[in-house]
Amino acid sequence: MSKSPHRAVSISSAVALALLACGSGSSGGMAAAVDAGVDDASLDATALDTGSVVTGPAGPWLWMPVADSHCRDGSGTGFAYTINPGATQLMIFLEGGGVCFNSVTCDSNASKFGQTELATFTSSETSHGVFSRFDPKNPVKDWNMVYIPYCTGDLHGGANPGGTPPGQAPQQFVGYGNVAADLIALKPLFPGTTRVLLTGVSAGGMGTVINYDQVATAFGAVPVTLVNDSGPTFASPYLATCMQSQLSELWGFDKTVLAACGADCVGDGGTAAVGAFAINTMRHLAKKYPNRVFGLMDSTDDSDITKLYGFGASNCTGYVPLDQPQFTAGLLDVRAQLAFDKNFGTFYFAGTDHTTLVYFFETHAAVGDGGAAVAASDWFSQMVAGTVSNVGP
After folding, report:
1. Does the pTM of the predicted model rise above 0.90?
2. What stretches in the chain show pLDDT beneath 50?
3. Which of 54, 152, 270, 277 is found 20 to 30 A from 19 (Cα to Cα)?
4. Which domains does the chain have, with CATH numbers?
């Protein structure tokens, strides 16, 4: 099972493997790096304390604490950003790192993120893939960048500050409100923005779908492109109806993504179809924004998401990870359900790797038209430029 360098762990059972689901790698890696002695010395402490705007060449990563932004343990958080003076394009990146809906998953999901954790992000991720300022294959290397960390366990989508998973204390599932507060704080940092890329990995990939409406609303007429890396919006049976309902109800999706989705997410009974929020939300976005570009990328046997979605087995009473044919069928179903949108593209590559945009940006490839190999970096660059394609099976 191929992993990002800072996510290599020893696993002894399928259930333990499920703990890793939805992580881009930064959360588990952060803990390891902090334990290894990484501290804030690698950061510009003055800039971090003030959140001041930098001048000159592309500046360092700065920390912006946001008063109305909280992790699930109640601690404060914020976002990181880096400015390239003169740039009018902005990437907003939503981090992954697990989910919290039972004692198994909550134990593996980060519950806080502040400046200490940011030190690990800057030392481990910012020179790779979409964060690299030097990779010529990175189409956003000269853009302004915002990094929204993940410490709410709710796919960046919750609005339930007293949610109580089985066997756990009450948690602050407030990811959706965090993004809203972040948008208010970050917009003044980037006046004159002409284009936005909303992207993220795993839980953050799903978070791009959940939060697209409020990001698009915040930027008005400015076009917002979405690229979801390894957070597939499966329909049932690939993401079981019972599991979608449990997550929606625990995290308060009726107040966030389902409310934004409106009539497109209403079931036959006239109420929100919480058991189908994933595909319904993506279909809603494609209908509401017919001229915007949306993309999904994932491996055909994603080693993490196959295990996460296994919690839906036997009407959520058992645990059986999806196998490769099931997972690939789920990816193809997403493509089929979004086929009405000429601006929805997919990049499906063979294997079990989980996430691409940071550590595997240069290595993943899939079969395109005529049997020629297409690099993930090339597909991503084309999507950012507005050229949409479906690559892979």
Report:
1. no
2. 1-56
3. 277
4. 5-391 (3.40.50.1820)
